Amino acid sequence: MKIMIKSNFMIPGIEDEESFELSGSRVTVREFLENLSKLSPDPLDYVAPGADRLDPDDWEVEINDVPYQDFEEGIEKYLNDGDTVTIRVLAQGGG
User: Fold this and answer.
1) Structural domains present in the chain
2) Is the pLDDT score of 25 beyond 60?
3) Is residue 64 classed as helix, strand or coil in its secondary structure?
4) Helix, strand, or coil here: 29?
């Protein structure tokens, strides 16, 4: 399964890639993000263990330009071959 990736930061482990190949034909948004995390030399926690959503202060994730929260399944939504996942890290404000 091939998933296209867009991001506002360089994703560790796939720095110059525009897509990510996954084995198998069924993968959820959670599983996709966990697989991405494992590729990084310093794994990122896109999804906290046991969480049912992403931390809204850290990440925005869209599937084909639709926020994952708009899907009834949330991060348990299954991705399809050719889907585009957009991952944005949110800027942290400071004073």
Assistant:
1) 2-89 (3.10.20.30)
2) yes
3) coil
4) helix
CA 65 – CA 82 distance, rounded (Å):
13
66: β partners: 63
Distance CA 36, CA 17 (A): 12
Backbone angles phi, psi at 8, to 5 degrees: -100, 15
What's this model's pTM, rounded to 2 decimal places? 0.86
Phi, psi (degrees; rounded to nearest 5) at 56: -65, -15
69 or 16: whose pLDDT is higher? Answer: 69
Q: What pLDDT score was predicted for residue 50?
A: 85
DSSP three-state, residue 34: helix
CA distances to 12, 25, 87 from 50, rounded to whole Å, are 23, 24, 20
Reduced to 3 states (helix: H, G, I; strand: E, B; else coil), residue 70 is helix
Pick the residue with more confidence: 15 or 28? 28
